[in-house]
Design goal:
Layout: E1 4-7, H1 12-23, E2 29-32, H2 43-48, E3 56-59, E4 62-65, H3 67-77, H4 88-109, H5 111-121, H6 123-144, H7 162-176, H8 185-195, H9 198-202
Parallel strand pairs: 1-2
Antiparallel strand pairs: 1-3, 3-4
Helix pairs in contact: 1-3, 1-7, 4-6, 4-7, 5-6, 7-8
C-alpha cells in the first residue's frame, strides 16, 4: 500500500516526519502543500486535516496528523530501527526532549502566530518575537541534554531518536532566522553527528525547495 506524505518543504513539523520515515527506511510519495499560498486551507486539504496544518501521512489505510503522533505510530508499527529507547525512563526522557521543542518552542513560532504578531506589532516585532522565543528555547534544551543518557553524539544514547528528529528541524529554523546556537556545546555536537547521516542529508528542506522531490 502506498504511503503518502502531505508536507511543505520548510515546515519543521513535516521535516520531523520526513526524518523518521528516512531513518526507518520507509518510502513514500510526497504531496506538496504550499503554506505561504494558503493551500492548507483548501477544502481538499481541510478534509484531510481540519486544522489546516501539515504534515498529513496516509499509511496502512489511515490518515494521520500531528508529527509526534505520526512518529509514535511509526515506532509502534515499525519498531526497527528504534526511535525511542527500550527502557521506560529513557522513552520518557526522549519524549520530554521532543515535546520541549514541539510543544513549547514551535507553536509560538509557527506561521499563524508570526503573521498575527506582525499584524499587531509590525515586521520588526515578528522577527524579535521569533528570535527571542527560539533562542530561549534552545538554551533551555541545551540544559535538558545534560543527562546520563547523553553520550555526545545524539540527544539520547548512540543512535538517533525522536528527539533528534525534532531538534534538527528547529536548528534549521534557528539558522534561517539568524539565531546563533553553535555556542551550545551539546546541541552543536548533536547537529554535527546528525549532519553526517544520509537520512538527515536526504531530508533537508533544501532538497525539496524546487518541488522536484
Amino acid at each position: 500500500m502506498t504511503v503518502t506524505l502531505y508536507d511543505y518543504w520548510r515546515s519543521s513539523s513535516a521535516y520531523r516526519v520526513r526524518l523518521a520515515l528516512a531513518l526507518k527506511g520507509i518510502s513514500y510519495d510526497r504531496v506538496s502543500v504550499d503554506l505561504t499560498a494558503g493551500e492548507q486551507l483548501s477544502p481538499e486539504h481541510l478534509a484531510l486535516h481540519p486544522q489546516g496544518l501539515v504534515p498529513v501521512l496516509k499509511i496502512d489505510g489511515l490518515v494521520l496528523v500531528q508529527s509526534l503522533a505520526i512518529i509514535e505510530y511509526l515506532e509502534e508499527t515499525r519498531p526497527e530501527p528504534a526511535l525511542l529507547p527500550h527502557d521506560a525512563g529513557g522513552r520518557a526522557h526522549v519524549r520530554a526532549l521532543a515535546e520541549a521543542i514541539a510543544c513549547e518552542i514551535h507553536p509560538v513560532s509557527n506561521l499563524r502566530v508570526l503573521v498575527q504578531v506582525e499584524a499587531v506589532g509590525g515586521k520588526d516585532a515578528r522577527a524579535a518575537w521569533n528570535k527571542d522565543n527560539i533562542a530561549r528555547g534552545l538554551a533551555a534544551f541545551e540544559k535538558l541534554l545534560d543527562h546520563p543518557g547523553f553520550e555526545g553524539l545524539f540527544c539520547y544514547g548512540g543512535m538517533p531518536s525522536m528527539a533528534d528528529c525534532v531538534l534538527v528541524p528547529q536548528l534549521y529554523n534557528a539558522t534561517r532566522w539568524g539565531i546563533d546556537w553553535k555556542h551550545l556545546p551539546r546541541i552543536a555536537a548533536v547537529a554535527k553527528t546528525c549532519a553526517e547521516l544520509p537520512a538527515f542529508k536526504a531530508t533537508s528542506p533544501e532538497q525539496f525547495r524546487s518541488g522536484s522531490k
